[in-house]
Amino acid sequence: MRQPPRDADGAARKVTRRGLLLGGAQVAVMSALGLRMRYLQVEQADQFRLLADENRINIRLIPPARGLIFDRNGHPLAQNEQNYRIVVVREDAGDIDEALAGLARLVPLSGETIERARKELLRRSPFVPVTVADRLSWEEVAEVAVNAPALPGITPEVGLSRFYPLGQDFAHVVGYVGPVSDYDLERIENPDPLLQIPRFQIGKTGVEAKMEQQLRGQAGSKRIEVNAMGRVIREIDRIPGRPGANVQLTVDQGLQNFMQARLGKDSAAAVVMDLTDGDLLGIASAPSFDPNKFVRGISVADYRALTANEFRPLSNKTVQGAYPPGSTFKVVTALAALEQGLVAPEETIYCPGYTEVGGRRFHCWRRGGHGHVTLNESLEQSCDVYYYEIAQRVGIEKISEMARKLGLGTAYDVPLSAVVDGLTPTRQWKRANRGSDWMVGDTLNAAIGQGFVLASPLQMAVMTARVASGRSIMPRLIKSIDGVEQPSGAGTALDIGPTNLTFVRQGMYAVSNSRRGTAYRTRVVDDALQLAGKTGTSQVRNISAAERAAGVVDNEDLPWNRRDHALFICFAPFDAPRIAVSVVVEHGGGGSAVAAPIARDIALRALTGEVPPLRAYPENQRRAVETLFDGLQLRETAPPAPGLSRA
Amino acid sequence: MSYLEYRVKTVPSGLRKVLYLNWALVLLVTAVACVGFLMLYSVAGGSFQPWAEPQMKRFLAGMVVMFTVAMVPIWFWRNVAGVAFAISILLLVAVDFFGDVGMGAQRWIDLGVIRLQPSEMTKITLVMILAAYYDWLPANRVSHPLFVAIPLVLILLPSALVLKQPDLGTALLLVFGGAAVMFAAGVHWLYFAVVIAMGAGLVIAVFVTRGTPWQLLQDYQYRRIDIFLDPASDPLGAGYHITQSKIALGSGGWAGQGFMQGTQSQLNFLPEKHTDFIFTTLAEEFGFIGGMSLLLLYGLILAFCIASALQNRDRFSSLLTLGIAMTFFLFFALNMSMVMGMAPVVGVPLPLVSYGGSAMMVLLGAFGLIQSAHVHRPRGR
């Protein structure tokens, strides 16, 4: 390259000037950068620091321990069980197929489970722990823990899950919990953030569902620092939650166990109410099911078996079942007539076996009739014609009014699922719902608890309790919440003449204790335990003229679902009533033959607090009763009350 | 005194040259690099791996390169400027056309330890050729239109090739770096005034025509501009980087969150935290004071470079020094404006601090040239 001639000074001065200009420009830009830095870091620092904290701090909920449920004596009905499970973290496990295969050698894992775990592991972020096996035994967990070094990314964990130690005895009362479903979330207006936790369990039925708010408790929270991927870096602090309230029911687990066993495989329901506070001592529905299966995730086959069963094991018949009360309703009709003064206790009405109203013949259950019948005899022998007559004098409105006074036709506020309100029909109701006018025949049917009248076993128990006590007793299922006693259901004196109540009670005494009583066979010979009851046999079909002509078909010959319901209500002991009992055996046949023996056993069990003593039974029945009790599969001893076991 | 005379007489020779190095500059460069090591150690969560240690090794290799380049007389570099520039252009073309075929072009300049990207190299060779050009061109012809057109071609050719890659950041550095050399060489200011006016007119036209049938950009390009102007409008999309970066900077405050305590960078909210956004980490952990200190270090480097350039009576040396200083300035100014939300995200590393071998090597080589110019400057008189 050639050397250019040097025009040294002029050019050099220019370079210096321009160089300084460039330097000045650089200083200007750097000042701008400095000012910007000052603006961001000094003037707006607070705002940005807040944003930074929002970025990094995440709030995680700590699920509270669910409240426990006890019976009236402190025996646990629902508790939280330590649940051993195995979780796998993908990024630690390396090859997940290999990890799962290794795990399957130690713990029994079905192919389905492995496949589901594999999918979930691949779907989630690599650092999220995924539960692979649940509810393992201590031995299995120990095996995994011992082999931990060979199983990277696989860790045993302990959690709490619901356990119902008494299994199917309380399936309908306590209910069960299950994972929150989308359907559940939709129904709740302002869902607790807890519900968003995957696999969080809430009450689905029964007390678990109705007392959800109290049982759930309040979530604690921990503030954790997360990175941009959501990975937990560290815990900053935690606010402890409040465990759910412990709920004590009024139910006696021993009595409940006896009732459930005594109802056996029948489709039946029984309620025992205490006359002091309205406590529901036993509230059994049969057949039942094991609620623990639902907590663990019931198999499709098991669930289908439950729903396909025509005895409806999932339904709590004590409150969900609405049955025609049949002759048990005569108590209501009688009281209505007595209160209106339209019949005197000593007045006799002639029963020829039928009555004719408006050209239609209404039969008494006894073909030949009862002859001349007083109030007491009408209850004792359950004469239909007597009630046809007095019902016409009183009218449906007063009958229904009395029924409501005695507790029918109202859905009680007990924390159970799908409580029905039954039906106490009126003229207005029929017009509104059936579109036709009330007929005299409707009144006659209602008088003997047929036709439109419907009541649940719980309502029948309340009715019996009110007749026995003369007070407006209300059923109570929750005895206390976290030790706080709940309001008593004792009620106040009913607006019914005490003498009239006495007449009816005496009639009921006759049913169970006089030789001609419909429940005489199921009398109690121990004077201190005597029952006063009322039988009921309610038709679920109309007896057609053709059938009647051919002679009434024997109940036994009908298909199950067309047979009569068997009902029995009673209170005991007669002298100083302490309990009221109602029993309904769906399509069981006659109330006296089927329901009354069950009610007697249950009442005696409730009164004595032990397996009924044979001395209470008539001598000729004792052997049969003994055989029956020996065959009952009762729980030997109740599980001990462990107090508040929280892991 | 002619050039040849003073060269022989007064320029130090042999190992004595080491004493004549601009040692202040060496110290400043090392200081900035140390800031880089510290930050790389921090963003790796308190670990020399995977960034700090390789970066240190590269810095040492780069220092060897710098001293080697500094020992070679500056006139040698002037003489090879044309060849170096031609090689850069060839490599750029190779990268553009064959680069994606088995990385062929990049292997050519694999120095064993690191791989040099042709676009990085071009930043220096462009300044070299322009300095050599104006050294050759008589001062009275500098503003002649024909002799203005030649450097324009020299600048626009590599810029276009780099833009095609596409690498907007480097293209901007080339254009502004080249323009700075032209300006320093004394090209008439009217040329610059016209170009700036045209640029401003273009920007105005872009915005004015928006929404009209003859708008100058595609809709998506307008959206990018929108996001640059208001990153909050798309905080999780394209605006994410810049929003998170501003949050990190701002949360640093006066004194910062403390070394390794920057939540934004330690928790990975920051993108590219070890490369383009490393300044954010520095500002978050050491606050305004830390950020300003780094800016001050950069300013001192510039000041020493400009002082050295203005002292130097050799035209090539002083233009080369000014051009390299300008390129260095553009590097950090663009990077800082970007992370502070003052410029679009164009992908320019923070010089000597960001992780990356190519840029480090080229920059240290460039400082070697400045040292060579400093050592071999005309003396006497």
Description:
The complex is a heterodimer of chains A (about 650) and B (about 375). Chain A is α+β, with helices and mostly antiparallel strands and about 650 residues long. In chain A, helix 16 crosses helix 19 (about 440-445). Residues about 1-5 and about 640-645 of chain A have low confidence and may be disordered. Chain B has one domain (about 5-190, about 240-375). In chain B, helix 2 packs antiparallel against helix 3, helix 13 runs antiparallel to helix 14 and helix 14 (about 315-340) runs antiparallel to helix 15 (about 355-375). The longest helix of chain B is centred in the C-terminal third of the chain and has 34 residues, at about 280-310. Chain B is globular, with a radius of gyration of 22 Å. Classes of the chains: A alpha+beta (about 650), B mainly alpha (about 375). At the A-B interface, helix 1 and helix 2 of A face helix 6, helix 8, helix 11, helix 12 and helix 13 of B.
